[in-house]
Amino acid sequence: MCQFQKLPLKIILFILILNGLNNKLVFSKHQTNKNNFDLFSNDEMIDICLETDIEYLLNNRQENCTYQNAEIYYFDKYDCSKISLNIKIKPRGHFRLNPKYCEFPPIKFKFLENNIKDTIFRNQTTLKFVTHCNGDDYILQEYLIYKIYNIFTDFSFKVRLAEITYIDTKNNYEPFTQYGFFIEKTKHMATRNNSVNVSINKVDKDFLNYNYTSLIYIFEYMIGNNDWDMDLGKNLKFLYSNDFKSYIPVPYDFDLSDVIHPDYPNISDIYGNGDIEKPKYRNLSRKKNELTAIFNIFQYNKNSILDLYAKFPFLISYNKKEIIDYYKQFYKEIHREKYIKKIFLNSDNRTN
Questions:
Q1: C-alpha torsion angle, residues 45, 123, 38, 126 (rounded to 10)
Q2: Of 185, 239, 253, the residue nearest 208 (C-alpha)
Q3: 12 three-state secondary structure
Q4: For residue range 261-289, what is the model confidence (pLDDT) as tens digits?
């Protein structure tokens, strides 16, 4: 842990706020709402089956598309009973909705309230589900990035990993099984943090929580993600915190992060050189001692982050090593003075 006596009182208080009162660093206060949204109550992977018209799903990729009938079922882990639910689904998203980039689109689940009361989907109405797109490994890596951000703060989206078997009701496709994950609803995340989800695309920087804004800038650099924008509100949700009396930005959509480096087809449509844009630290006006305070938070969580990957059983071993090495390079950069000056304090090496 950092040496508090060497830092100004303002920075000491800053770190204490970020640390909270337990060993897990969180940025928010203890949750005051005790509602248990069961789907996200643990990290155990769930096995589910989805039956629907696959051909219709694949051909229905457009903004504001209509829902289609589907059925999902899973086995209750306590009594092994089969639980079946009639639901509605439709393709969703923007970039990954386009068949040029993803063979299989992300999905939005819509539940019928009268049949979910005693299931893991209780209290849910709609849910976003991130599918495999073109391959499992990328989706697993994006899932883990969400889990990393969970380590830092409760102001983050919970996710639940699933192994899902798709069954075509028209028998045009053989059943196939892939990984995917559910993403917590924004309003549920807001409720458990005594906050309100605000339906706005951007917030003036003067009204943003100073500490959380700093966290996001460093976090997005750590994972090598350029696909976000604080000024435009791109790939961010904003909550108004009743505890902090300020707006809290919450990041999502990490699939274009350099640490994942997905091999999307036709990626040159976005990046002219045909490759993911190399990460750059965004231009955030912070003093060196304020950056040091944030870096100390990342250092404190280093082992938790690396252990998350080391103990995750579903990633290919050589990918684990590459990812861990990627993060170790980041930790080298925030630990050594020459890197801090070059990357974080030299405006020539930053981008707006």
A1: 20
A2: 239
A3: helix
A4: 888 776 666 665 556 667 788 888 899 99
pTM (2 decimals)? 0.88
Of 297, 193, 189, the C-alpha closest to 237 is 189
Q: Contact, 230 vs 205, CB < 8 A?
A: yes
Helices (H), the chain: 9-19, 54-59, 136-152, 186-191, 210-223, 288-300, 302-310, 317-335, 337-339
Average pLDDT, the chain: 86
Please tell me whether residues 231 and 307 are part of one structural domain.
yes
Q: What is the pLDDT of residue 271?
A: 61
Residue 323 φ/ψ, nearest 5 degrees: -70, -45
Rounded distance between C-alpha atoms, residue 151 and residue 251, angstroms: 14
| Count: domains in the chain | 2
Measure the CA–CA gap between 35 and 43, rounded to whole angstroms. Answer: 18
User: Residue 18 has what pLDDT?
Assistant: 53
Residue 55, pLDDT > 60, answer: yes
The predicted-structure confidence for 103-148, as pLDDT tens digits, reads as follows 999 999 999 878 898 899 999 999 999 999 988 789 999 999 999 9
Q: Which domain holds residue 60?
A: 38-187
Q: What residues pair up with 48 in beta bridges, in sequence order? A: 164
Please determine, for residue 329, whether its predicted confidence score (pLDDT) is greater than 60: yes
What residue ranges in the chain does DSSP mark as E strands? 46-52, 68-75, 82-91, 107-110, 126-130, 159-168, 176-183, 195-198, 236-241, 246-251, 281-282, 350-351
- Pair (130, 219) in one structural domain: no
Domain boundary among 187, 220, 237: 187
Does residue 64 sit in the same domain as residue 137?
A: yes
Query: Quick one: how many helices (H) and strands (E) in the chain?
Result: 9, 12
